[in-house]
Amino acid sequence: MSVNPTRELTPAQHALAEHLRLVSSGQIDEWIELYAADGTVEFPFAPAGVPTLVQGREALIAHMRGFPQTFDVKFVDVKFIETANPRTAVAEYRSEGIALSTGKPYEQTVITVIRLDEAGLVKRFVDYWNPLVVIEAMTPDEAASSQDVSWPSER
After folding, report:
1. pLDDT 10s digits, 18-51
2. Which contacts (CB < 8 Å, 24+ apart) does range 94-100 have?
3. Pair type for strands 122-128 and 108-116
4. Which backbone phi and psi does 35 adopt, to 5 degrees?
5. Model confidence, pTM
């Protein structure tokens, strides 16, 4: 992951950078430690077959468990947008990688908003990514684009 801060990261920026590092390296058991017990991950533009809201550590682990078997991805060019609250971070970054089931590229620009609780754990993580890129990456060339795109653990 490439983050090029000109100053020290705020707590929320650090949590977001760790989220990206751990997810891209497949360290889901370590990743969940960033989250509050009732923490949420939201995907406002999720396609059919992928939930728009996942809440609580058990649900988050169940949702993300299959990610490393679904994508081989790195998150690069992370640019943080200044916020007034050090427990809130907004970032724009790119994913570079492939969908493992098809070998097709998985490359897109994402904007994420993260909010930490008083203890410094992720309370809310909102991920704005393009579902069309996911569908294209996970659809074999000979299949229709309406394929179910849920992670393997959710099928």
Report:
1. 999 999 999 999 999 999 999 999 999 998 888 9
2. 95/71, 95/129, 97/71, 97/72, 97/73, 98/71, 98/72, 98/73, 98/137, 99/70, 99/71, 99/137, 99/138, 100/69, 100/70, 100/71, 100/72
3. antiparallel
4. -100, 145
5. 0.84
Neighbours of 31 (CB within 10 A): 22
Burial class (CB in 10 A: 0-12, 13-18, 19+), 104: middle
Handedness of CA 126, 127, 132, 136 (dihedral sign): negative
Closest Cα partner for 81 from 1, 5, 2?
Answer: 5
Residues 25 and 6: their CA atoms lie apart, in Å, by 25
- Please give the pLDDT value at position 142: 75
- Report how far residue 155's alpha carbon sits from residue 152's, in angstroms, rounded to the nearest whole number: 6
**Any idea what DSSP says for residue 8?**
P
Q: Residue 69 corresponds to which tokens in the numbers above?
A: 């078997």
Show the beta-strand stretches assigned E in the chain: 35-42, 53-55, 71-81, 88-99, 108-116, 122-128
Please, are residues 78 and 94 in contact by the beta-carbon 8 Å criterion?
no
Cα 81 from chain centroid (whole Å): 17
Return d(Cα 72, Cα 61) in angstroms, integer: 18
